[in-house]
Design brief:
2 domains, 14 helices, globular, two-stranded antiparallel sheet, alpha+beta, single chain, about 35% helix, eleven-stranded mixed β-sheet
Length: about 475
């Protein structure tokens, strides 16, 4: 049954909590995120599960608790997801998909809020706004002919100097994503491809991925889309009679976008029929292994001409097949779908944590070179910052649970969802349908008083007499 499988998934997270009471609150929070009908922060869990009002403080304490950490919880989730054997593989490598997302936040006392610039083609946000800059890494999983991004880890990547701490990550916005991916690969003892967009087509990203990890190099191979003004060089051909000085390394300079119209390169293009964003078509492609100055080494470039236009991909794996590279990059859109599910279906970014020890700042966008206001109690402000990351990562965990349940119990979910859809896009239910079905099952169990660990735990929390310690704390 689906509910027993969910219990097993939740119980697999038990070692991350040093206290039983904290784990019980974790189960309540996960169930509350599934069944809630609004996204007004932590209080929505109280309303969704009909908990007593004093439970609100208990929920806040859960996210601020030191009895568990984000890293410890997520490491268990990564291993469990690997045991499920749903990850898409290319050879012996997993496929990780990563990207950034910017969330508007106008809290005057919310830590790590900075001025952000919206550079994507969207009209939903102004050009400059105040908010949090998140970086997220996901695992590409497959079920039949359907692909989705199972979330692994999310972290705030900007404004960290305000909260400080010994574990504050170094590097730039682009390299911190690679550091997260390397940590995941090291924890799982697996090699992986990291698929990124053109924002990450910079030298430090490839250099960070090429650094040795635990004595083993190339744990992470980068696959990203190149910028349109990308320039590379042919290896220099050495003459028989060497000249004085250091030998030349770089040969002829090539502007790769101009090679599509080059008459000398026209015969070198190959044709093949493949799937481009789930549509079969015939494409033309050219593979080149060239020197790239930002890395001072060889990079493999793929030039594709499709019905959607011209595209250049680049990778640190010099043996990667061009059609496999195109297939992987077309799956990068799955993380955009994951962000949409997280924001609009689960409300995972609707958090309202703030610190009273921070000086209030203006809601108007300002220059980021100005120092952020310091906290009168840095430790408590750091705890508030950690609570924000805990809130979002638990939501990611819930989304991952829904994706696993959708793969394992598709027929049961379709029968229990009882929701009308105009079209059925695939055999595997979406997280929205899975959440609807799971909500119906949980509420049905609560009304019928069916005995299982999740139902009994929620019933205990609904009865305020079962929490005398919490009542004394509130009093």
């Amino acid at each position: 049954m689906m509910i027993q499988y969910l219990e097993n998934l939740l119980h697999a997270m038990r070692p991350a909590f040093s206290r039983t009471a904290t784990f019980r609150w974790f189960v309540v929070v996960c169930v509350g995120f599934v069944v809630r009908t609004d996204t007004f922060g932590v209080s929505s869990i109280v309303r969704a599960l009909s908990l007593p009002p004093e439970s609100y403080l208990g929920l806040l304490h859960f996210f601020h608790s030191t009895a568990w950490t984000v890293e410890g919880l997520l490491a268990l989730w990564w291993r469990r997801l690997l045991e499920e054997d749903l990850g898409y593989r290319v050879g012996d490598r997993l496929v990780l998909v990563a990207d950034h997302t910017k969330i508007p936040k106008d809290g005057r006392k919310m830590p790590a809020v900075t001025t952000l610039h919206q550079d994507s083609e969207t009209a939903s946000k102004p050009g400059f706004f105040r908010g949090h800059h998140w970086g997220c890494v996901s695992l590409l999983i497959s079920s039949g002919n359907q692909y989705c991004a199972a979330p692994l880890w999310a972290a705030i990547h900007q404004g960290l100097e305000q909260v400080g701490g010994r574990d504050t990550p170094s590097g730039t916005l682009s390299t911190r994503i690679v550091t997260m991916a390397r940590t995941i690969a090291h924890t799982l003892h697996r090699k992986a491809y990291l698929v990124l967009d053109a924002f990450f087509a910079v030298g430090p990203v490839f250099q960070e991925a090429s650094n040795e990890l635990q004595g083993e190099s190339n744990v992470i191979h980068i696959l990203t889309r190149a910028k349109k003004n990308i320039v590379a060089y042919l290896p220099c051909t050495r003459t028989r009679k060497p000249s004085r000085g250091r030998p030349r390394k770089y040969g002829k300079k090539l502007r790769l976008m101009q090679l599509f119209d080059s008459a000398s390169r026209l015969a070198q293009f190959h044709s093949a029929e493949t799937s481009v964003y789930e549509k079969k078509e015939t494409i033309r492609y050219l593979t080149l292994t060239l020197l790239w100055k930002p890395t001072k080494g060889l990079i493999r470039f793929f030039l594709f001409e499709t019905s959607r236009g011209r595209m250049i991909l680049m990778t640190s794996d010099l043996t990667l097949d061009p059609l496999v590279a195109l297939h992987l990059y077309c799956r990068r859109v799955t993380i955009e779908t994951m962000f949409d599910m997280l924001k609009n279906i689960l409300g995972g970014m609707a958090y309202h944590f703030w610190s009273k020890f921070l000086k209030p700042t203006s809601r108007r966008p300002t220059r980021n070179d100005r120092p952020l206001p310091t906290s009168s109690r840095p430790k408590q402000t750091r705890n508030t910052f950690t609570a924000i990351e805990k809130f979002v990562n638990v939501q990611l965990l819930v989304l991952g649970f829904l994706q696993v349940l959708a793969v394992r119990f598709p027929l049961h979910i379709w029968s229990q969802s009882r929701c009308w859809l105009r079209t059925y896009s695939s055999d595997t239910p979406s997280p929205f349908v899975t959440r609807t079905a799971l909500t119906n099952v949980i509420r049905g169990n609560l009304h019928a008083f069916r005995k299982n660990r999740i139902t009994q735990l929620i019933l205990d929390k609904q009865d305020s007499s079962m929490n005398p310690a919490l009542q004394r704390k509130v009093g």
